[in-house]
Amino acid sequence: MTPPPWAAGLSEARASGAVAPVRRHARPRGAGAPATAGYRHDLDGLRAVAVLLVAVYHVWVHRVSGGVDVFLMLSGFFVGGGLLRSFARGAPVRLRDYLPRLARRLLPALVVVLAAVLVASMVWLPRTRWGDVSGETLASLLYVENWRLAVGEHTYGAADAMQSPLQHVWSLSVQGQVFVGVPLLLLAVWWCTRRWASPARLSAVHATVVVLAVASFFYALVSVRLDQSFAYYDTFARLWEYLTGTLLALAVVRARVSRGWSVVGGWVGVAVLLAAGLVVDGGSSFPGPAALVPVAGAALVVLAGATSDGRLPRGSVSRLLASTPVARAGGYAYTFYLWHWPVLVFAIVVRDRPVGWLAGTAVLLVAGALAYATRRWVEVPLRSATPRPRTDGLRGLRVAVAVAAALAVALPLGWFGQLEIQRRSFSTVDTASFEGFPGAMEVAAPGVFSVEKDATPVPDPVTAPFDVALPTRDECVTYNEDTTVVRCTYGDETARTVVAVVGNSHAEQWVDALSGIGSVSGFRVVTYLKGGCPFSLDTPEENPWQSCRDWNTEVVEELVESPPDAVFTIGTRYSWNDDSIPGNEFVPPGYVRAWEALDAVGVQVVALRDTPWLLESAPDCVAVSNDPTVCAVEATSVLDVRSPADDMELPANVALVDLNDIVCFDGVCPYVQGNRMVYRDNNHLTQAYVRSIAPVLEERVRDVLPVF
To answer: Which of 96, 425, 483, 560 is the most exposed place for a label (fewest CB within 10 A)?
Structure first.
């Protein structure tokens, strides 16, 4: 039987004699026979169960199964355990052998999948998605995809047409970092203790593993409470799962369980593993203590196979997992995992709807066929470092993999170059001129400006996501857990009249328009902005995000101490995530409390009704079709007929402004209006459009607030 593929098996640990060579078999021996040289075929079977759990949950259940956590633990059991055994023999792993073998084991299949995803993306995904896929391809190739997702504040979600076809590579990135980082650290400890006696040096290595495991677990516990979406992809928050497997490898050497316990413990472990994804919401709680559930279930299965006589008893789950078909299936776990997610995502894209039982089964079968082909004709032939005759077939295979690797690098870099050219071209477009490209003025002043026929909208759908507001370009926005109040000044910077723009990115998107108005009308615009944090004095029950609450408290204190002439903010919020609130919109109580605090010191508030949130990315739609009947949405599906603020008793200092009769005209919210892209994603306006609606904003604010 070949080494376990997902964990890179014993092969990486053997790279320099990290573990003693064991006799191999083309297939597992009788499931009840003693394990040859300690090789655990039942854990191949466990790997098959884990990867199938991951795939089934992705296809149909849309939850975190815990299978990835099992993979990490098994990686630690095989690779980490092999490393510790090499130290125990006084012959630590040699990096010059270990790292090349690791690369031969993991990279060929990965680059084939990456190249295939790039080609499929060019065929089936809109051009607006190519940049993200290109970035994720390079991140996957460099084994940093987990950090890309973490920094991008990507949260776990069910498979759909908007998900990245490479999102799943985050776990491989974590493993790759651990496969390299842990040996380096342990070798450093071994070198630092070179003057110690061998038993003491080994104890230092073991102690390092224990301390790291405990530190990682408590780090995960705290990180999940502070920022779970970041912790989910954090390598150090996941490290304890790998090191648990490493320590389990030490324990199994000494553990010898009875046949009865093997039967009971093994089945209990599988039951816990199968139930983990149903009883624990891993998407919102992993890798914290909740991840102990699947890890503990897998650990029970590992221990159940360590019987006192070396035989797997009849009726035990270990015997079932070690059976030929199940154990062999585990040999394809790595390649199956690589293929299942992109096949699923592209199936949804092509079908334009989620997969059901029939289509989902087809996804698994296609992924299985691709996994078989990749392992047989790519992974296995290229894995060995032993010199062999250079047959035409092997030479051709190496060329094919080299071409795939070149594609995985060249296509993303080429697309990034094209994006830069398009960005520079867009920067030369005069979006201040309404002629031919009137944007909102097509509705606000019909017939005044011409609309160029068959024109490409500005910005181009590909560059629309980069058409962001001034504060973002000037790095004047606070993000994540930072509570620093950052202020930037726009408009007439010498004016005594001050308008403060306060809130999140939906308030920020109006800064360019307000800056232009202020430059002409003679007022200064000062920004107080934090990503994802609206201007609101919330209770912990209303908003559990503490840094947002702290930031708002500090902003209110500053505005009360040094009152501006007016505050511009967003006055409504969308309620799709709260079934207890009727309609599409509401005014949160925290908003009103913030306005009341300003009313107490005589500060006027302009509360702008938020613009609609779409159910899809506008640039993605327009990149495929510029048909206005296709790339538009009925207003009633994203807006209430009346603003909820109109029917509320609000503080006397609040002036309500609504521009949605322009954004959504005649019952329709178009994605392109007057040859200008309205949205740069599914909820933020492009600055090209904001500049076109600025005259309407100025007129309506001036009607309710003389300072304008």
So the answer is: 96
Burial class, 195, CB count within 10 angstroms (exposed 0-12 / middle 13-18 / buried 19+): exposed
Determine the Cα angle at 287 with ends 282 and 291, to 5°.
65
pLDDT in tens, 38-90: 678 999 999 999 999 999 999 999 999 999 999 999 999 999 999 999 999 99
Buried b (16+ CB within 10 A) or exposed e, 294-304: bbbbbbbbbbb
Distance (Å, whole) CA 704 – CA 321: 73
Which DSSP helix (H) or strand (E) runs through 573?
strand 573-574
C-beta neighbour count of 708 within 10 angstroms: 22
* Residue ranges per structural domain of the chain: 9-406, 441-704
Domain 441-704: assigned CATH number: 3.40.50
347 close to 359: Cβ distance less than 8 angstroms: yes
Smallest CA-to-CA distance from 73 within 313, 186, 240 is with 240
Both tokens assigned to 262: 């093997």
CB 272 within 8 A of CB 293: yes
Q: Which has the closest alpha carbon to 688: 512, 570, 526?
A: 512
> What CA–CA distance (Å, rounded) separates 395 from 379?
14
The contacts of residue 250 (CB under 8 Å, 6+ apart) are: 81, 84, 206
